[in-house]
Design a protein that fits this description.
heterodimer; A: 746 residues; alpha+beta; 7-stranded mixed beta sheet; 29 helices; 51% helix; elongated; B: 123 residues; alpha/beta; Immunoglobulin-like; 2 domains; 6-stranded mixed beta sheet; 4-stranded mixed beta sheet
Amino acid sequence: MAEAKKTFSIKGMHCASCVSVLERSLKKVPGVFLAGVNLATEQATVSYDPGQVNESQLSEAVSRVGYSAEFIAAEKSEEAIQQEKRKELKKLKGLVIVSLVLGGLILWGSFPAVSETAPELLKSYWTQLVLAGAVQFWAGWQFYAAAVKSIKHRTANMDTLVALGTTTAFAYSVFITVWPSVVKSLGIEPMPYFDVSTIIIGLILLGRYFEAKAKAGTGEAIKKLVGLQAKTARKVIGGKEIDVPIMEVKLGDILRVRPGEKIPVDGVVTEGSSLVDESMVTGESMPVNKQVKDIIVGATINKTGSFLMQATKVGQDTMLAQIVKLVQQAQGSKAPIQRIADKISSYFVPIVIMLSVATFVLWYDFGPQPNLPFALLSAVTVLIVACPCAMGLATPTAIMVGTGKGAEHGILIKDAESLETAHKIDSIIFDKTGTLTKGKPEVTDILPFGNMTTRDILIISASLEVGSEHSLAESVVNMAHTENIKLQSMENFRSIPGHGVEGVLNRKRVTLGNRRLMLQDKIDIAAIEPQIELLENQGKTVMILALNGKVAGIIAVADVIKDSARDAISTLKAMRLQTAMITGDNIRTAKAVAQSLGIEKVLAEVLPGQKEAEVRKIQAEGKIAAMVGDGINDAPALAASDVGIAMGSGTDIAMESADITLVNKDLSSVAASIRLSKKTMRAIKQNLFWAFGYNIILIPVAMGVLYPFFHVLLNPIFASLAMALSSISVVLNSLRLRKAKINIAD
Amino acid sequence: MTIYMTADKILVTIFGTLGIGLTYWFFLMKKEKAIEAKEVADVVVEGGYSPGVISVQHGKTTVLNFIRKDPNSCLEEVVIPEFKVRKFLPLNEKVEIAINPARKGKFDLSCGMNMYHGKIIVK
């Protein structure tokens, strides 16, 4: 017995007793095996025999006890959709085999060269009529059904063409079989075309079969992403751990994640630590160390340790769900390049029908004798060879594969238009802090003087800075922590804003700060001036440490450039893109950073509100500019640019303001995005060229334009083969993108 | 070579021309009336979309319930590019698509292969 499962919402529940009342009522419906109602999610899950139970019975069972059921909200699962598609494919396969086998038999009995060897039965026109009739009205029924339905709407499509074409060939053949003498009296040899009508149907169905199979591949990325979702979570309730379905995880739940398990939802680590492989969601290949308070993303894999986490995002709010939604939306959007194809394809089928009628008339009036079969076959060939599907598939299949491919690499593309524009980009503007740099100052240089060591300088400075709240101070203390240095206690700590800090350690007066502080304390720094200048020219901030009024060392701090930045920039330059950097920093620091990265243009001392204007200035020079930023502070600049690229996590508002979001936070993905765009656009152009070229060349050939010169006519069977291959080739060309290399490392 | 227009040829020419004219009129000159959707509208997917033209209010959320009754695989997906929708429509099941138009205009609605068309008019 079949068993189906359905989850639907219930309105009007307020207490735990509602749950049991509802469950009882649902279970009473004949054919329902199990019914579970969840008060928290206000949802019922019912497993039942679909042959016995339908929605209205369930709905009635719910309303009988005073609540209302809502079925529409429950989305059909990806698995169910796949199952439906598989069932359809299987049915199609059967139709293809039957029609091609029967078509083959008819061909054997009728094709001049081979019919000698065929049994008499197959040579009989009446036998052929029966076999062809079966194909025409059983295997080909779907064409009629679709054609009739669309004619009611006064639209025509592929099915209309196939139905018209094959019916014409079939009807003519039937006429010949039934009244051969009538045809003979017109001076035409009574030769039916049952082979034509059946084999056309067989081949077109075969084409549809392969097309459907190939098309399934274009949506693979979404399937993979959805498949990443964990099915269950291990919930901790009152010290006990129980496995619950993922749907039942609520905000704030404490969950246990063991090594090797998938992290069920987004959350924060509350106890324990582990290495987490986030590659499936972010594309980042190195496992990341996660400790208490660290954010973890659902659907990533816990490698080493066991830990507890608190759920902060569940259901449709998780990063994975957001990513899936974004990719789905992108695949539903339309690329501007598609507009012409759209316009043409909406007129295409009626035009082909008109051309086919014209072909008939021209061949009948001016063609050679016997004019009727010539006119008929040519008209049928025109109907069959025309391939509107290829035009319809050319752009969307490539967009689907392209956006999916991006998602696999941690590149989320908002819509088809962004993907299309990205290939035209000729200059890229980077925001500095947090994009090219890590956004957190780090100690870069420690220079000891006299008999001091690097370690001494760090111990003293960190012991002093621990009392300060300045971000530069934090970097010194952090460094001491990573070096496992034990800090010493400082007396008489004093912070002098805009200058530095002072204190007393082991009865020595300690001063740490900038030039101004040294000047104020009358400490001579003339001897170390060259070193200070050198560091400052590298874009670093310098702090001078003095003990009892004498210089002891220098600590230089800088916002460290990301490891991936240098390679990313040089790759972009190799792609002949102009690079620019925009920052609020002073020109000296900005220039130093830009120079070390090889960035050509520097826009320094730009206030956050002015970034947008700077982007517009570059665009005014006729450039197609991409802006790369963190997506939060520079949202207006991202929106103003032609393609806004945000480096950020999937849950950020960044995804709203940016055209492309790099969830892998990898700068080299900027180049990868542009490469992906170029490859996708190339595939689209090839597809459109093929789809249009095919129709533009083969329709006139089918009409017989070559006949007066070369006596060449297209056989309708070849026409159907060409048409089937045409749409498949477009889909296959799009699928090639799946294997395209977009990363240098690939 | 002289071509004689015999009676049958004249007939074929006349009927052919009429056929072309009829095809043009039937498929390319149709005008559909827009059906106004309040908050919810059902769209039956069977050989096309009924209603074929739906008018919705600007700035308001309208829920379109698509019900595919046509087993033809061409109609298995519905695409509304303006609202970034590409949805699989399971046979005989209601699929809810909520749209909240941010701008006015005429927007296309089509099947996955762009063979069947409908329109959403935002007023």
